[in-house]
Amino acid sequence: MTATIDAREAGFFGALAGDWWDPNGSSAMLHRVNPLRLRYIRDAVPGLDPRARRPLAGKRALDVGCGAGLLTEPLARMGADVTGIDAAPENIAAAQAHARTSGLTIDYRCGEVATLAAEGRRFDLVTCLEVVEHVADVPAFLASLRALTADDGVLVLSTPNRTPLSYATLIVGAERIARTIPRGAHDWNKFLTPDELTAALASAGFRVTGTAGLTWRPGTGFALGRDTSVDYFVTALSA
Q: Which 8-state DSSP code applies to residue 71?
């Protein structure tokens, strides 16, 4: 089994576990973009009733790199039978504690996605948001995601693009100046362009069916659109 967890990255984000659910804390940016993430996911999964209160009822969902459950819990509230997995045990402990206080039943795991895949688990929806840029072995990681995605399932992935603008926005602006993202959270050299990610997903057995950019606009905040120069979402199905 190829290790995909980067111990340094897991330690970095595990140290933030106690602050994860504070909307004004180190994960404030994630709190702000979460509504857009959920909107993108709703649109990405075929056949969902946009008016339904629990549109994911009857579906099995996996949130990879779940942290303390900021996305995992809304997926559960949308009706899915949810599993969350993360590399940092501190994050999983925080996620479990928060789920208990929220009255939600979520299967949280700590460790390699390959271990979960080896159990034969398959999911209708796999989410992997802002994670692939932190793993130690991208091809092995994506291969495990394919093994975990049902043949008629959907993978939703987001990640920063490797452009001069993303460096200026995320590394210089957000980490060093505004400090809206913890300093050291990103290694710009590990960012993937949409073409690189599409090719890597194809090698893993996926085909990309949709892409959208995540941008920030003065006066209106975060928005989804065509501009993928800073950060972007990808929808992929089995090839």
A: T
Q: Are 73 and 182 in contact (CB under 8 A)?
A: no
Place of tokens 């501190």: 90
* Count of beta carbons in the 10 Å neighbourhood of residue 150: 15
Give the amino acid at 84: G
pLDDT digits (tens, 9 = 90+) for 65-113: 999 999 999 999 999 999 999 999 999 999 999 999 999 999 999 999 9
CATH top-level class for 7-158+196-212+233-238?
Answer: alpha beta
* Cα dihedral 226, 214, 116, 7 sign: positive
As a whole number of angstroms, the distance between CA 145 and CA 51 comes to 29
Burial class (CB in 10 A: 0-12, 13-18, 19+), 59: buried
Q: Which residue ranges make up each domain of the chain?
A: 7-158+196-212+233-238
pTM for the full predicted model: 0.95
How far apart CA 231 and CA 84 sit, in angstroms, is 23
